[in-house]
Amino acid sequence: MAKLYGVGVGPGDPELMTLKAVNTIKKCSVIAFPHRKTAYEIALAACPEIKHKKLVSLELPMTKSKEEIYAAHKKAAFILEEYIKNNEDTAFLTLGDPCIYSTFMYIERIVSMHGYETRIISGVPSFCAASAAFKISLADGKKQIHISAGDDDIDEVLNYNGCRIFMKAGKSLKNINDRILKAKSKAYVAVNCTMDNERLYTDIADIIKTDGDIGYFSLVIVKDEKD
Protein backbone atom coordinates (compact mmCIF):
# COMPACT_ATOMS: atom_id res chain seq x y z
CA MET A 1 0.00 0.00 0.00
CA ALA A 2 1.26 3.48 -0.84
CA LYS A 3 1.98 5.97 1.92
CA LEU A 4 1.71 9.68 2.61
CA TYR A 5 5.03 11.23 3.59
CA GLY A 6 5.33 14.55 5.39
CA VAL A 7 8.69 15.86 4.24
CA GLY A 8 10.44 18.75 5.97
CA VAL A 9 12.47 20.71 3.42
CA GLY A 10 14.21 22.88 6.02
CA PRO A 11 14.16 26.66 6.45
CA GLY A 12 15.03 27.79 2.94
CA ASP A 13 18.51 26.85 1.77
CA PRO A 14 18.16 23.71 -0.40
CA GLU A 15 21.54 22.50 0.89
CA LEU A 16 19.97 22.14 4.33
CA MET A 17 17.56 19.49 3.10
CA THR A 18 18.40 16.10 4.58
CA LEU A 19 19.47 13.17 2.44
CA LYS A 20 16.40 11.32 3.74
CA ALA A 21 14.14 14.12 2.51
CA VAL A 22 15.74 14.15 -0.93
CA ASN A 23 15.52 10.37 -1.30
CA THR A 24 11.89 10.32 -0.15
CA ILE A 25 10.93 13.00 -2.66
CA LYS A 26 12.70 11.13 -5.44
CA LYS A 27 10.84 7.89 -4.76
CA CYS A 28 7.37 9.46 -4.52
CA SER A 29 5.36 9.77 -7.72
CA VAL A 30 3.16 12.57 -6.35
CA ILE A 31 4.47 15.80 -4.83
CA ALA A 32 1.99 17.92 -2.88
CA PHE A 33 2.60 21.33 -1.35
CA PRO A 34 0.75 24.43 -0.08
CA HIS A 35 -0.31 26.75 -2.90
CA ARG A 36 2.23 29.41 -1.87
CA LYS A 37 4.88 27.05 -3.32
CA THR A 38 7.80 28.11 -1.09
CA ALA A 39 8.44 24.54 0.06
CA TYR A 40 8.17 23.28 -3.52
CA GLU A 41 10.71 25.82 -4.79
CA ILE A 42 13.20 24.74 -2.12
CA ALA A 43 12.74 21.07 -3.00
CA LEU A 44 12.96 21.83 -6.73
CA ALA A 45 16.40 23.39 -6.27
CA ALA A 46 17.62 20.22 -4.54
CA CYS A 47 15.72 17.75 -6.76
CA PRO A 48 15.14 19.28 -10.23
CA GLU A 49 13.57 16.04 -11.45
CA ILE A 50 10.45 16.55 -9.33
CA LYS A 51 9.06 18.93 -11.97
CA HIS A 52 8.34 15.81 -14.04
CA LYS A 53 6.26 14.20 -11.28
CA LYS A 54 2.58 14.72 -10.53
CA LEU A 55 2.43 18.10 -8.77
CA VAL A 56 -0.49 18.90 -6.48
CA SER A 57 -0.92 22.46 -5.23
CA LEU A 58 -3.25 22.51 -2.22
CA GLU A 59 -5.32 25.53 -1.21
CA LEU A 60 -4.57 26.04 2.48
CA PRO A 61 -5.83 29.50 3.50
CA MET A 62 -4.14 31.58 6.18
CA THR A 63 -7.15 32.46 8.29
CA LYS A 64 -8.15 32.38 11.94
CA SER A 65 -11.50 30.79 11.11
CA LYS A 66 -11.37 27.28 12.57
CA GLU A 67 -14.21 26.19 10.30
CA GLU A 68 -12.39 27.32 7.14
CA ILE A 69 -9.13 25.76 8.27
CA TYR A 70 -10.70 22.40 9.09
CA ALA A 71 -12.60 22.37 5.79
CA ALA A 72 -9.36 23.03 3.90
CA HIS A 73 -7.57 20.26 5.80
CA LYS A 74 -10.37 17.78 5.06
CA LYS A 75 -10.34 18.70 1.38
CA ALA A 76 -6.55 18.35 1.19
CA ALA A 77 -6.68 14.98 2.95
CA PHE A 78 -9.35 13.75 0.50
CA ILE A 79 -7.25 14.81 -2.49
CA LEU A 80 -4.13 13.07 -1.16
CA GLU A 81 -6.04 9.92 -0.22
CA GLU A 82 -7.13 9.52 -3.84
CA TYR A 83 -3.49 9.17 -4.90
CA ILE A 84 -2.75 6.74 -2.08
CA LYS A 85 -5.76 4.63 -3.11
CA ASN A 86 -4.19 4.51 -6.57
CA ASN A 87 -1.05 3.06 -4.95
CA GLU A 88 0.99 6.20 -5.54
CA ASP A 89 3.43 7.22 -2.80
CA THR A 90 2.78 10.87 -2.05
CA ALA A 91 5.07 13.47 -0.47
CA PHE A 92 3.65 16.56 1.22
CA LEU A 93 6.36 19.23 1.36
CA THR A 94 6.52 21.53 4.36
CA LEU A 95 8.93 24.22 5.47
CA GLY A 96 11.19 23.44 8.40
CA ASP A 97 10.12 20.31 10.25
CA PRO A 98 6.67 18.71 9.85
CA CYS A 99 6.23 18.43 13.62
CA ILE A 100 6.65 22.16 14.37
CA TYR A 101 3.66 24.39 13.56
CA SER A 102 3.06 22.57 10.29
CA THR A 103 -0.20 22.15 8.40
CA PHE A 104 0.88 18.64 7.54
CA MET A 105 0.17 17.29 11.03
CA TYR A 106 -3.51 18.26 10.79
CA ILE A 107 -3.80 16.54 7.43
CA GLU A 108 -1.84 13.53 8.68
CA ARG A 109 -4.31 12.98 11.53
CA ILE A 110 -7.23 12.86 9.10
CA VAL A 111 -5.45 10.54 6.66
CA SER A 112 -4.33 8.22 9.48
CA MET A 113 -7.84 8.18 10.94
CA HIS A 114 -9.06 6.96 7.56
CA GLY A 115 -6.72 4.00 7.78
CA TYR A 116 -3.86 5.06 5.49
CA GLU A 117 -0.17 4.76 6.35
CA THR A 118 1.87 7.89 6.93
CA ARG A 119 5.52 8.69 7.59
CA ILE A 120 7.23 11.84 8.80
CA ILE A 121 10.64 12.93 7.49
CA SER A 122 12.29 15.46 9.79
CA GLY A 123 13.70 18.75 8.54
CA VAL A 124 15.93 21.49 9.96
CA PRO A 125 13.76 23.96 11.95
CA SER A 126 14.16 27.66 11.20
CA PHE A 127 15.14 28.51 14.77
CA CYS A 128 18.06 26.07 14.64
CA ALA A 129 19.23 27.65 11.38
CA ALA A 130 18.83 31.11 12.93
CA SER A 131 20.85 30.25 16.03
CA ALA A 132 23.62 28.96 13.75
CA ALA A 133 23.51 32.19 11.73
CA PHE A 134 23.84 34.27 14.90
CA LYS A 135 26.40 31.84 16.38
CA ILE A 136 24.44 31.59 19.60
CA SER A 137 23.42 28.60 21.69
CA LEU A 138 19.74 27.96 22.23
CA ALA A 139 20.40 26.04 25.43
CA ASP A 140 23.40 25.38 27.65
CA GLY A 141 23.56 23.02 30.59
CA LYS A 142 20.09 22.74 32.11
CA LYS A 143 18.67 25.88 30.48
CA GLN A 144 15.15 25.66 29.08
CA ILE A 145 13.81 26.43 25.59
CA HIS A 146 10.29 27.76 25.03
CA ILE A 147 8.72 28.06 21.58
CA SER A 148 5.64 30.12 20.74
CA ALA A 149 3.83 31.29 17.60
CA GLY A 150 1.92 34.53 17.19
CA ASP A 151 1.45 37.20 19.85
CA ASP A 152 -1.28 35.78 22.10
CA ASP A 153 1.02 34.83 24.97
CA ILE A 154 4.05 37.15 24.76
CA ASP A 155 3.97 38.14 28.43
CA GLU A 156 3.59 34.56 29.60
CA VAL A 157 6.43 33.26 27.43
CA LEU A 158 8.82 36.09 28.34
CA ASN A 159 8.28 35.27 32.02
CA TYR A 160 9.78 31.83 31.47
CA ASN A 161 13.44 31.15 32.20
CA GLY A 162 15.92 30.30 29.48
CA CYS A 163 15.68 30.88 25.74
CA ARG A 164 12.36 32.03 24.29
CA ILE A 165 11.58 31.66 20.60
CA PHE A 166 8.74 33.46 18.83
CA MET A 167 7.94 32.06 15.39
CA LYS A 168 5.82 33.88 12.77
CA ALA A 169 6.64 37.00 14.76
CA GLY A 170 6.47 39.73 12.11
CA LYS A 171 3.36 41.45 13.47
CA SER A 172 4.47 41.06 17.09
CA LEU A 173 7.81 42.86 16.98
CA LYS A 174 6.75 46.05 18.75
CA ASN A 175 4.97 44.14 21.51
CA ILE A 176 7.99 41.90 22.02
CA ASN A 177 10.41 44.84 21.97
CA ASP A 178 8.42 46.83 24.55
CA ARG A 179 8.55 43.91 26.93
CA ILE A 180 12.17 42.82 26.53
CA LEU A 181 13.38 46.38 27.18
CA LYS A 182 11.79 46.16 30.61
CA ALA A 183 13.16 42.67 31.22
CA LYS A 184 16.73 43.55 30.15
CA SER A 185 16.81 40.74 27.63
CA LYS A 186 18.61 40.43 24.29
CA ALA A 187 16.70 39.73 21.07
CA TYR A 188 17.89 38.25 17.79
CA VAL A 189 15.61 38.56 14.76
CA ALA A 190 15.88 36.40 11.65
CA VAL A 191 13.83 37.18 8.55
CA ASN A 192 13.64 34.62 5.73
CA CYS A 193 16.40 32.66 7.43
CA THR A 194 18.81 30.92 4.96
CA MET A 195 16.78 32.17 1.98
CA ASP A 196 18.32 34.45 -0.67
CA ASN A 197 16.70 37.49 0.97
CA GLU A 198 17.76 36.60 4.53
CA ARG A 199 18.08 39.45 7.00
CA LEU A 200 19.54 39.21 10.50
CA TYR A 201 19.09 41.81 13.23
CA THR A 202 20.29 42.17 16.81
CA ASP A 203 18.16 45.22 17.59
CA ILE A 204 14.40 45.04 17.14
CA ALA A 205 14.13 48.83 17.38
CA ASP A 206 15.99 49.23 14.08
CA ILE A 207 13.47 46.98 12.32
CA ILE A 208 10.47 48.80 13.76
CA LYS A 209 11.84 52.11 12.46
CA THR A 210 12.52 50.85 8.94
CA ASP A 211 10.44 47.77 8.12
CA GLY A 212 7.46 47.60 10.48
CA ASP A 213 5.77 44.29 9.66
CA ILE A 214 8.62 42.12 8.33
CA GLY A 215 6.47 39.29 7.09
CA TYR A 216 5.50 35.72 7.81
CA PHE A 217 8.91 34.02 7.69
CA SER A 218 10.36 35.78 10.71
CA LEU A 219 11.34 34.66 14.17
CA VAL A 220 12.71 36.21 17.33
CA ILE A 221 15.09 34.52 19.75
CA VAL A 222 15.11 36.14 23.20
CA LYS A 223 17.84 35.44 25.74
CA ASP A 224 18.69 37.05 29.06
CA GLU A 225 21.57 39.50 28.68
CA LYS A 226 23.70 37.49 31.11
CA ASP A 227 23.39 34.50 28.76
From TrEMBL:
Signal sequence interval, chain numbering: none
Protein's pathway: Cofactor biosynthesis; adenosylcobalamin biosynthesis
Q: Name one GO molecular function term.
A: precorrin-2 C20-methyltransferase activity
Q: Name one Pfam family in it.
A: TP_methylase
Superkingdom assignment = Bacteria
One GO term of the biological process aspect: cobalamin biosynthetic process
Please report the stretch or stretches of sequence annotated as the Tetrapyrrole methylase domain.
3-204
Q: Which UniProt keywords apply?
A: Cobalamin biosynthesis, Methyltransferase, S-adenosyl-L-methionine, Transferase
- NCBIfam families (UniProt xref): cobI_cbiL
Q: What is this protein called?
A: Precorrin-2 C20-methyltransferase
Q: Which organism is it from?
A: Johnsonella ignava ATCC 51276
Query: Lineage from the top down?
Result: Bacteria, Bacillati, Bacillota, Clostridia, Lachnospirales
